[in-house]
Amino acid sequence: MLKLFKVSFWSVLILFLSQAAFAAPTVNAVNSVTNSSLVIQGAGFGIKVPAEPLLWENFERGVDGSFLATDPKWKNYSMNATNPKYSAAMVYSGNLAGHGRAFPNSPAPGNEEDCSAYFTFDGQDALYASYYSYVKLGGPFQGTGKFARFNSQSAYTGVPSFITQTTAAAYSYPTINTGSGGPTFHNIGFKMAQNKWNRMEMFEFLSTPGGAKNGIVELNENNGPNLIPASFDGITRASGISSKLNIFLLPLMWANLTGENYADMYVDDVYIDITRARVEIGNAINWHDCTTREVQIPSAWTNNSITVSLNLGRLKEDEKKFLFVVDSNGDMNTIGFPVTINGSGEVDPITPGLEPAQNLRDVPVQ
Predict the structure, then answer these.
(1) Within 13 Å and on the Cβ side, how many CA atoms surround 252?
(2) Domains of the chain: total
(3) CATH number, domain containing residue 315
(4) Domain span at 40
(5) 206-239 pLDDT, tens per residue?
(6) How far apart are CA 122 and CA 246, in angstroms?
(7) Rounded to two decimals, what is the model's pTM?
(8) Closest listed residue to residue 346, CA positions, set 5, 113, 31, 7
């Protein structure tokens, strides 16, 4: 009888620990360290090593009109087109963004006009990216816009790869190439809006081992749901393929333009990491109701504490703000933790247990 009790006890304990391990993050407090740094206290954040993302690029270190490649981390990817530059003409936040303009080089379609740049890093089995994209065409919608892509070994042809494209019909689709049998196209039927900034998020986990149906692909537009269809078979790296993702290509590519048409493409606030674990601040208390969410830049991360550099992006100083922690599984506190951030970047401390309306009060700018 005693033996049966021991088995039951340990079974319950293991079940409890398993449930705790997969519980969504909980935020208990948010405090300022400096006027641009926050410390988040709570539980269930998981361990993130390294704490810093692979890349945070807001293009603010550049000079208007100079080439992105003046920064050695960016390498030009060009095909009969102008290499991308820093630009103040159209920005999501701050003073500068990345810009590429594609022209046709023939009166007939079938030519690819790319003016992008790419970032390389050590090979990874998982990759997450968030960026803002703005597209303006000089004529009717035509050709194919090729937005950001994950690649292995080669900036364009390397596999495995994951890319989002938009066609002349204005419908976008992700393309997944496992490294065997060519790319698979998934028509997901949403329209990439022109002449406005769109937030795009991508995540890919490569099948491990190759051929296993445990791969993950996610695509989100403007903080919406995952757009990858349920018909996706879960294979992101083919059997016998061992290559890892080690290239991120900026969304500055357009193919098959004709006549006098051109494509002006801008990109801003690019965040790349090896995990979905991140911190975001949004403009609604419910994660799914946020029309704006801005990713924060972590510098320290433990299961109970995270330090981030503040990134308000387009969040307005006078609007209510709510903080969310996302773990590596993509789970988050769906009810945001309310924070008030003044013009100096300082946080008004929150008393746990009070309703958000009681905590959100104005803090004078210092």
Answers:
(1) 32
(2) 2
(3) 2.60.40.10
(4) 25-51+277-359
(5) 999 999 999 999 999 999 888 888 888 999 999 9
(6) 6
(7) 0.86
(8) 31
